[in-house]
Amino acid sequence: MSFDNHPGARSPGPIVLDALALDKLRELDPTGTHGVVLRVLRAYEQSLSRLLGELAAVRQTRDLETVARVAHTLKSSSASVGALALSKRCALAERMARTADATALDGELDSLLHEGALALDAVRAMLQP
């Protein structure tokens, strides 16, 4: 059975990934023969894991440039796989970092890292055989 047609692929636990966004990815490879969804999710998992680690590392130093760059990168990739809550958190964190609102950014980064962990868990659940 291909990944794209796996019955559990839509419900990785708590709803963290938007089903409509995942359906749009599936439309790119309706039969699943090219494994588009699987490849996209694997790439996203690797990127998300790396970028969350980068955000956690710069959280204490309040490196606003790095926060803005990472949040911007995660914003669009998260939206494309349906991690819409994470994408919204990223947009807010990016905006705060670009306006140098470091004090308010602390709490937002905590929320972003938490939402990122939920998204990472959801993607990993979808990648399970």
Which descriptors apply to this entry?
single chain, 129 residues, mainly alpha
Return residue spans where pLDDT drops below 50 for at least 5 consecutive residues: 1-13
Helix/strand order, N-terminal first = HHHHH
Number of helices: 5
End-to-end separation in angstroms reads 10 Å
State the total count of DSSP E strands. Answer: 0
Determine the oligomeric state from the structure.
Answer: single chain
Q: Major sheet, described briefly?
A: none
CATH topology: Four Helix Bundle (Hemerythrin (Met), subunit A)
Q: What gross morphology would you assign?
A: elongated
Secondary-structure arrangement, i.e. CATH architecture:
Up-down Bundle
- Rounded to an integer, what's the Rg over CA atoms? 15 Å
Structural class: mainly alpha
Estimate percent helicity.
over 70%
Give the amount of beta strand, in percent.
under 5%
What does it look like?
The chain has 129 residues and is mainly alpha-helical. It has a single domain (3-127), classed as Up-down Bundle (Four Helix Bundle (Hemerythrin (Met), subunit A)), CATH 1.20.120. Helices cover 71% and strands 0% of the residues. It is built from five helices and no strands. It has helices at 19-27, 36-59, 64-81, 84-98, 102-127. Helix 2 runs antiparallel to helix 3 (64-81) and helix 2 packs antiparallel against helix 5 (102-127). The chain is elongated and about 50 Å long. The termini are close together. Mean pLDDT is 87; it is low at 1-13.
